[in-house]
Amino acid sequence: MTTPFGKLGYRLVHGTIDYTHAGRVRGHERFTISAHGDGSRILRTTSEIFETGVLRDVSMRVGADWCPRDAFVRLTISDQFRGSGWFVFDEHEAQGEALHAPASRVSQRVRLEQPVRSFGTHPILGDSWHTALFDMNGPATQQFENLMISSYAFDGSTGPELLPVAFGLELVGIEDVEVPAGRFRTRHFRFLLRKTEFHDHPPYDVWVTDDGDYVTVRARVGSPRDLLYELAAYEQVER
Amino acid sequence: MQHRTYRGQISYRHDRLGEQGREWFSVSVQPDGTRTLRAVCEMEDEDLLRDVTYSVDGHWRPQDAYVRLTRDGSFHGASWFRFDDEGAECEGFTIEEGRFRQRVELGQCPTLFAPHPVVSDGWQAAAYDYSKGPGMLSLENCANSSSRPDGGSGPMLGIVFKDLEYLGEEHIVVGAGSFRARHLKIHPRQAAMAAWPPLEFWVAGSDFLLLRLRWDLLETTYDLVALDGNAR
Q1: Is B212's Cβ below 8 Å from some Cβ in A?
Q2: What mean pLDDT, rounded, does chain B reach?
Q3: Is the pLDDT confidence value at B1 over 80?
Q4: Is A72 exposed, middle or buried (0-12, 13-18, 19+ CB in 10 A)?
Q5: Confidence (pLDDT) at A3
């Protein structure tokens, strides 16, 4: 449910997602979303994965249609700079400008037959935003193309760059889920990754808020990695 | 991962209108001194929302930055900045300019970069050699993302010159606490900015944490009202 806008004309959603394995915290993600009057949204995340030393900053804007408009990704691995990149999208072209460590300047221009429908920048919350593609009035499983991602690495620790990707989503159901941040009505999706660049990815389920914001309430990566992501703090503020 | 992190909030308070904006920031500092700032700044009087991610190396030299402006509830511009030993570049897209690319050859890395969060204005104080005591330092080839006082244009690469004045140490109290502070002023040197009064600010510690900034031009005082984490 979208709440009315305040004086500044936008709504902020703040929160934290804890990354755990076998009950042990292995990282976390802080996020702020602003939802604007024109339907556009900006996602800002800072993600830390302790075991692989990933520190990732992402700022990404999508239009009212949830298609990406521009994004910034900055990667630090084990306290060393890995990459910084800026990406801009229109209906005909995706462009990337990046610096990859130690000093490789990369420019990409990708002509598009169709607009990029979603851009994966690797925050867990960004994964959940992919589910905005899903037509809730359509079939239970749906395939998506014309997608891009900033890294093929499981933890997003390469690049950042523009890479093509495709995957499917299955709507498992509408579920009430209890997490440290509270109880939420969610849409439970399963990513369909066979025959994709992520064919060896373990089963991946996400539970996202059923309010149109697509905030990650829970995400679970199955065996052998057995990773759990849960919303630990959540707040909405009208500005 | 051995980096430390601190977070805070700065209140923008107009002399007559009261609080007109605020800034949330976090800074991570790596063992080699490299630091990354993330800031979200909102200004009600300008209906301006600014997102910044800005990194400097262990010598406070700018490395890269991202600035996005949202004005009147809609996208205004987004640009990526990169700095090296010869100058600076900017890749951007704005409503007014469209897609553009800039490269400025300076024969040096810019002395500093001002992407306009108030907290990074405090980082300008890192340029001064405090062993010399109070005095004046010329800052050459300073980059910025906008020449407007509120940073509300572009974002595009600009180069300006200014003087940094160190007035001495003081004790000040702000919403976030009581601090021993260095008191400084920035004096613009550009002809177009000749009528601007100096920008006055106070910083603390080796992080040059901004405690207060006062600019008569905007009739606004910016105070640190919350601080959390490991600032030094």
Answers
A1: no
A2: 96
A3: yes
A4: buried
A5: 46
Q: What is the dihedral of CA B106, B112, B114, B119, to 10 degrees?
A: 170
Q: Is the pLDDT of residue A228 over 90?
A: yes
Percent of chain A with pLDDT over 70: 97
- Phi first, then psi: what are they for A8, rounded to 5°? -85, -5
Distance from CA of B228 to the nearest CA of A (A): 15
Residue B147, pLDDT above cutoff 80: yes
Here the ipTM equals: 0.94
Q: Return d(Cα B144, Cα B160) in angstroms, integer.
A: 8
Strand pairing of B199-204 and B113-114?
unpaired
Spatial separation of the C-alpha atoms in residues B220 and B20, rounded to whole Å: 9
- d(C-alpha B55, C-alpha B61), whole Å: 9
Separation CA A53–CA A56 (nearest Å): 10
The model's pTM: 0.95
Q: How far is B185 from chain A (nearest CA, A)?
A: 31
What is the per-residue DSSP string for A34-57? EEETTS-EEEEEEEEETTTTEEEE
> Under an 8 A CB cutoff, do A44 and B38 touch?
yes
- For strands B135-144 and B158-174, give the pairing: antiparallel
B37-70 confidence digits (pLDDT tens): 999 999 998 899 999 999 999 999 999 999 999 9
Q: Do A36 and B93 touch (CB under 8 A)?
A: no
* Pairwise CB contact (< 8 Å): A8 & B47: yes
Task: Name the average pLDDT for chain A.
Answer: 94
pLDDT band at A2 (very low <50, low <70, confident <90, very high): very low
Would you call B1 and A55 a contact, using CB atoms and an 8 Å cutoff?
yes
For residue A1, pLDDT over 50 is answered with no
Range of the domain at B199: 4-229
**Would you say A155 and A52 are in contact if contact means Cβ atoms under 8 Å apart?**
yes
A66 closest CA partner among A140, A139, A3, A146: A146
Q: Which helix (H) or strand (E) holds A129?
A: helix A124-129
Q: How far is residue B52's CA from residue A141's CA, in Å, rounded to a whole number?
A: 38
Interface with chain A: mutation pick from B43, B91, B145, B228, highest number of A CBs within 10 Å:
B91
How many angstroms from the chain centroid is the CA of residue A147? 12
| Three-class SS state of B124 | helix
User: How many helices (H) does chain B have, and how many strands (E)?
Assistant: 1, 15
Band of residue A4 on the pLDDT scale cut at 50, 70, 90: very low
- Structural domain tally of chain B? 1
User: What is the three-state SS of B149-198?
Assistant: CCCCCCCCCEEEEEEEEEEEEEEEEECCEEEEEEEEEEEECCHHHCCCCC
